[in-house]
Amino acid sequence: VQLQASGGGLVQAGDSLRLSCAASGRTFNVVGWFRRAPGKEREFVSAINWNGGSAVYADSVKGRFTISRDNAKNTVYLQMNSLKPEDTAIYYCAARPSRVTVIARSPYQYDSWGQGTQVTVSS
What we know:
The chain is mainly β. 0% of the residues lie in helices and 48% in strands. It is built from no helices and 11 strands. It has strands at residues 2-6, 9-12, 17-24, 31-36, 43-48, 55-57, 65-70, 75-80, 89-95, 112-113, 117-122.
């Protein structure tokens, strides 16, 4: 499977962005978003199950970010509102193995990764 993340950019604090993760090669069930800020470890942001009925968020983004998916387009979205400078990072989407339907927060439980898209939030 190939995952293609897009939608990043340079915005000001308080602005919004929508990231997209387009998948090809196979169907996928659980998709997550992770981010890596300069000098920091990769961290979990959000994840969604196959039908969008279940989603989880990191505490740092809860109430500001919304994950969703359009299975007809094989695409998962991350709507990011009220962006803060501390949201600056490279954002990656990832998918768990197809047979798995349980959401996970650990990046080690995802086996397919996109190339990342840069999000920069200026103060």
